[in-house]
Amino acid sequence: MRFSPTEVDGVVVVDLEPRGDDRGWFARTWCADEFRAAGLPTVVAQTSTSYNAEAGTVRGLHRQAPPHHEAKLVRCVAGAIFDVAVDVRPDSPTYLRHVAVELSAANGRALQLPAYVAHGYQTLEPHTVVSYQMDGPYTPEAEQGWRHDDPAFGIDWPLPVHDLSPKDRAWPAYAATEEDAQ
Fold this sequence. Notes:
The chain is mostly beta strands.
């Protein structure tokens, strides 16, 4: 695997290094030793999968509030997504910056997000499946979220938003919750 830091502190792109022959290829997608050497979390406490029927679906922006730790490794295993990490950690050197990376079944990329960074994605193809590995359990009472179209973040989603859950529609603007995000 190759680990490439991004413009957001602690967010890392994880690329596969496939080994192939006439049958196809094989690649390691996670290895505790390699993640540890790269300074990334090595505990997997929970794994989840999300299926999305339509292109243009947006999920997010979400995170768990401190002290509920939940670093994530996000990978698209069918279809493609525009994956976004937004730094909402007030003490971070990249506070309020975001990074967007296309993750797809074809490119095999993953995005590693540190705890307390907001995450969201938009599906670029129908029938997209996203897999998550988290280093802490989901804690419903610790969930926070912000609007996908919040001007504080300036995210330029590549497709018109086709589908958004009622919960994601109801998240407040970041400025309204800035003190709570700390």
